[in-house]
Amino acid sequence: MSGLKLSNLSKCFGKAEVIRGVDLEIEDGEFVVFVGPSGCGKSTLLRMISGLEDITGGDLWIGDRRMNEVQAARRGVAMVFQSYALYPHLTVKQNMGFGLKVRKEKPAEIARRVEDAARTLQLGSLLDRYPRELSGGQRQRVAIGRAIVGHPDVFLFDEPLSNLDAELRVHMRAEIAALHKRLRNTMVYVTHDQIEAMTLADRIVVLRDGRIEQVGSPRQLYSRPDNIFVAQFIGSPKMNICAASDLAGPLSRAGVDTSGAVQVGLRPEHLRLVPEQQGLMTGQVVISEYTGSGSLLHVEVAGVGTMLVLSEGQEGPRPDDTVYLAIDPGNVHMFDADGLARRAEDAGVSASGAMVAER
Amino acid sequence: MVALNDTEATARRNSVPWLTLRRREAIEGWLFVSPTLIGFLIFFLGPLIAVVFYSLSEWNLLSQRATYVGLDNYADALTANRDFWHVIRNSIFFAAGLVPLNMALALALAIALCRPGPGVVFFRTVFFAPVVTSAVAWAIVWRFLLQGEAGAVNQLLAHVGIDGPNWLREPNWAMVAVIVTRVIKMVGLNMILYIAALQAIPRDYEQAARLEGASGWQIFRMVTWPLLAPTTLIIMVITTIGSFKVFDHIYLMTGGGPENGTLVLAYYIYEQAFEFFDIGYASALAMIMFVIVLALTIVQLLLRQKGSA
Ligand SMILES: Nc1ncnc2c1ncn2[C@@H]1O[C@H](COP(=O)(O)OP(=O)(O)OP(=O)(O)O)[C@@H](O)[C@H]1O
Ligand SMILES: [Mg+2]
């Protein structure tokens, strides 16, 4: 088992620089998720770790070995592809044993390890089927099984669940989490589903344009984003971003010091509907989206713009209703002119305030 | 509902009661396929039936008189001391040389040229161009290149110290020469088929295999080759059929010679019919060839069904 170290890693395709100086340390046994918008370089970075893509600049360490020039097969990594990449002409058993077979492992040993992995993933009854005879979830499990059989140090997943329907995705997500708990391997997981990232990760790495925007635990990224990009990328529905000057009045009434802030971020779940006399802002509902447990309101606030507000309960306001909003003072995010989070010395205070407000 | 109303309306409007919507559609359908159908009857089925009749008669084109002789022509071909078995042997030899050579070369070229890269489009064009080149021009150029002493091929061989044979004048070498020149002409077609098949194999397979430690050869043997199997089967059958039907190439390169060394079935039929005017015998040969090609076609269809099942 081993951790990973990426230092100043970069990648060019011809003239296009796709990964630009990535520094990252991944602990042994950690579950790290790369997220970011499409085309930001998540897959490329993962493939550089795997050895399927060569490294233009910087160093890659797995365990205490520098791996830049090491062949993919000798890096001790296994990868689960989005397409699963199961060979259609081989049975489940043969697919899972493929890697051992090409490495000239003894048939008895191959059979033993395939059966081990099959037991772990409850694939026992499927071993003699062909991939085309399996459901999406079963194929996914076989793909993971194939990775397990080789006893790799590091597992790499490239959007492994994106071909599954929503229900199965949730189920397989839990299975992958359980697998990590049992195997305790280092796992690097690429997704652009931030719920997947939040639920699975020990730490999330947010990428944009080939650079790391922020690294942190899901909780850190949610409650203390370093910049507007991360603030808006993590959390659903998206955080409201408004000009600080437009919100100066309501915020000072809420007791929030906005000095130095150029933009202010408020999560929809941190805006509350209140009776008129407690309201800090007044707005009009434009759209109301029923979500089951509540409604997502698009509220037009004069002089500020449209804000998303999460209202709980079944009897939410209707379009054209006038609503009054209160701000959770502990959960106001402030950003400077460059979009970077402003956290003064009192950041600690407001953070603990947030904790209190959460209770 | 709409369809139902339509039917009723049609029925009421129609003065001819038997012309229901269903019958009308059937008639329209037959009208649409009739041009092809008529063409098929006149230009394929008609001649085929005619050939069957010819093959059962003794008919000399010059005397213009036909007499029924039963299966004599077939017996003549299969048992009498005519050239038939020599010709069949030549045809098999031609196929046995051409098919593996063509396929191996096509696959090698396809593997080299299936991914985009510098010069790939250029080389694909180079290898495909002969396929669409006139057979006549191709043969003329090669006859020129393959001349005895002065031919470019032998001069090249002389450079490396090999004393080349007079390619088209010696029976065995002539067969080698027509096979090789035919392969070079037609290999581009199979190359394109293989390229298409290779491009249809997801790259993830190769990458997954590479990550698991498979060498290039192992990936080819254990992943690529089995996935190409359906294509390989089809290519094998159509190339074999093509090689049994080869005519123009032989006609233009050697005229079946020397000493009947390249006399293959299709050319033999032509010779019997239009040089010796023995239409009955030639028709019997044509029927035999038809059966061979039909059998190969059925094999191909069966293989295709098995492949897709
Ligand atoms: N082989 C390649 N040649 C040239 N450019 C490439 C190649 N592979 C990827 N790129 C470019 O690199 C950038 C990052 O691609 P990558 O596949 O890593 O994105 P991603 O973050 O995984 O996106 P997605 O979420 O859509 O999978 C993209 O702009 C892409 O166009
Ligand atoms: Mg990707």
From TrEMBL, chain A:
PROSITE patterns for this protein: ABC_TRANSPORTER_1, ABC_TRANSPORTER_2
GO CC list: ATP-binding cassette (ABC) transporter complex, substrate-binding subunit-containing; maltose transport complex
Pfam families referenced in this protein's UniProt entry, alphabetically: ABC_tran, TOBE_2
Alphabetical keyword list: ATP-binding, Nucleotide-binding, Transport
InterPro entries: AAA+_ATPase, ABC_transporter-like_ATP-bd, ABC_transporter-like_CS, ABC_transpr_MalK-like, ABC_transpr_MalK/UgpC-like, Mo/tungstate-bd_C_term_dom, NA-bd_OB-fold, P-loop_NTPase
ATP-binding among keywords: yes
The organism's place on the tree of life at top rank: Bacteria
Molecular function per GO: ABC-type maltose transporter activity; ATP binding; ATP hydrolysis activity
Classification via CDD domains: ABC_MalK_N
Residue ranges of every copy of the ABC transporter domain listed in the record: 4-234
UniProt entry tagged with the keyword Nucleotide-binding: yes
NCBIfam families according to UniProt: PRK11650.1 (NF008653)
Record PANTHER family: MALTODEXTRIN IMPORT ATP-BINDING PROTEIN MSMX, MALTOSE_MALTODEXTRIN IMPORT ATP-BINDING PROTEIN MALK
Protein family membership: Belongs to the ABC transporter superfamily.
Protein name: sn-glycerol-3-phosphate ABC transporter ATP-binding protein UgpC
Source organism (scientific name): Halovulum marinum
UniProtKB/TrEMBL annotation, chain B:
Coiled-coil spans in chain: none
Cited InterPro entries: ABC_transporter_permease, MetI-like, MetI-like_sf
Domain of life from the UniProt record: Bacteria
Signal peptide residues on this chain, from the entry's feature table: none
TM ranges: 30-56, 92-114, 121-141, 173-198, 219-244, 279-303
UniProt main location, coarse: membrane
A biological process term (GO) from this entry: transmembrane transport
GO cellular component, one term: plasma membrane
Keyword tags: Cell membrane, Membrane, Transmembrane, Transmembrane helix, Transport
The ABC transmembrane type-1 domain, residue ranges: 88-300
One Pfam family per UniProt: BPD_transp_1
The keyword Nucleotidyltransferase appears for this protein: no
Compartment(s): Cell membrane
Keyword presence, DNA repair: no
Membrane-topology annotation of the record: Multi-pass membrane protein
Family (UniProt): Belongs to the binding-protein-dependent transport system permease family.
Protein name: ABC transporter permease subunit
Organism: Halovulum marinum
